[in-house]
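Study this fold:
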Amino acid sequence: MSQITPFAGLDVLLVEPSSTQAKLTVRMLQNLGIDAVRLAGTGAEALAAMAAKCPDLVLSSLYLPDMAGTDLVQAMRAEAALETVPFLLVSSETRPQVLDPVRQSGACSIVTKPFTEEQLARGLQAATEYLNPSVDFDSLDLENLRVLMVDDSTASRRHMRRILEELGIERITEAVNGREAVACLQETLIDLVVTDYNMPEMDGKELTEYIRTQSWQNAVPIMMVTSEENEGRLAAVQKAGVSAICDKPFDITTVRRLIAQTVAG
């Protein structure tokens, strides 16, 4: 994946107590075009490194010798100079009671261990876009944005369509499950896929895996809208390559932000 270089020039602080994992991650980052990688083995070392020089992005393990990744991101968000620095968590942890506080504290993306270079790249993309203040939603050409909406519930599709239309999106194609969506993607150019998770025939995870591995439109942004609370399933969806996850109910403020992140990036 050495040809993927949208991250070139980033100054990344990698917080990882394992020297083996650190070496592996540094190698992947270098392959992604990131040469400026600073290392820290503890939360205290990371905060000291950030005080010396503010990084563009922090990539941290969850379990550190002196604190958790949750404590680290909370400490960052309490500092004016660090509150908007994207924080990417790398962990094999899937328990919601552990990961939810990390998300609430300001983690922009979570990459599940073990991970591939491609999965790390997706996490980096999400992290760098999540807190990007330069994204101008109003500058997006929403009238010409081609959206594929996938949900087996007629009521949910109606609600999602109403929200999208309120945002100025007019070119909306509907599918009742993943198989219909696949057929559409084979015939029609799409700019954004908005899909439910739990569906018959082919669910949202299977659809995401198909798009990323088999579709000619494998780079299309995918926003998953779901009431799913099982953290293991959601982690699997993220691993499959979903661009953003939106909790149901589908609200206009969240959708506006996620569309700006996924489409403008």
User: Anything to note?
Assistant: The first helix runs from residue 19 to 31.
